[in-house]
Amino acid sequence: MRFGVNYTPTRGWFHHWLDFDLDDIRADLDQIAALGLDHIRVFPLWPVFQPNRTLIRPKAVEQLIRLVDAAGERGLDVNVDGLQGHLSSFDFLPAWTTTWHRRNLFTDPDVVEAQAEYLRVLAAALADRPHFLGMTVGNEINQFSGDPHPDPDRVDPVQAGHWLRRMLDACEKGAPGRPHLHASYDAAWYDGAHPFTPAHSARLGAMTAVHSWVFDGTAQRHGHAGTATEQHAAYLIELSKAWAVDPARPVWLQEVGAPAPHIPPGHAAAFTEATVRNALDCPDVWGVTWWCSHDVDRALADFPELEYGLGLFTNDRRIKPAGEVIARIIRTWLESGRPAEPRRTALVVDAGAEEEAPYRSVCSPGGAYFEAWMRLASRGVRAASVLSQRAGDAEYLAGRGVTEVLTVDQVR
Fold this sequence. Notes:
This protein folds into two domains: about 1-335, Glycosidases (TIM Barrel), CATH 3.20.20.80; about 345-410, no CATH class. It contains 14 helices and 13 strands. It has helices at about 20-35, 45-50, 60-75, 110-125, 155-175, 185-190, 200-205, 220, 225-245, 270-280, 320-335, 370-380, 395-400, 410, and strands at about 1-5, 40, 75-85, 85, 90, 130-140, 180-185, 210, 250-255, 285-290, 345-350, 385, 405.
């Protein structure tokens, strides 16, 4: 079990690449390591690193290496997100993909080739670093592929899958044998019209990434302390396994946080504890990576209000109650933690065709499947998820440790 944090620099947020200061970074990393965390996820800004289609700035790559080395000196492994892409409501796209040079991010041959080369170069630069975990293709770059993005680069599921395979192959070419993966926001699980699908998330890359945010309608519907809110991350972990071909495929809870006002600041510590402990009750979890390390500096303008206070530390590096909770959970786990037992009861999800999942909206907050799963959770049932196509496959169910299969109608 790995415990980590998404690293948000105290000085300059992710714009720190423009004014790179290793001393400030070291001070941030010292605090992160002191909590007992063992890894960070970092975010190069794509336009800063590749401002022209044929220019990947050597100095920017060197700065990334120095950050990874500084983390390694503190016992922190590093996962690197490549295509930023999208962060905290802001888009970061290089000029050669927009306006006068507008080209589809996922299908234009020149753009795709440049993206692949960029990911390969970053991976290759870090391939010999022992504390380099691997690449994530990008941070929720699927949000560019459809609504509600104001200017989407539309693709279909086949094209999305082809693009993901191309990007993952580039990461593997740069750093062979590392656990490279991709990450989508929850439209991949909840929106039947979205071109990035559950099968993409659960079958491509070394592991499945889950990003759990309760402002998706969960907290609004169930309240800040409701079962569904505290179980949302665990639900997505288990839901992802329904589409996995490998019953033991690892799942990384790569982003989860306590967004105000959906989670009131005074309740953030309790939400953090409940969310992480429920996630640890899921089998095959690779790790939990909190969003984020430090609050965003309020001198920076135009962030959505909830983005400013998500850190385990304040922007002036004071630990917050949620940070104390994470440190305590890690200590307890190191002393007595053990892998979660299999979930014996599985709830059947019928989202239509396995690859496209056109009816996956049943899995979203308020959907029939989501509410049935949460109804079981409120009764203390540790429910797994299984596709309707496999609900009668005895060998598959046995491989997951499932001994009881329920339908949504039975739970009603």
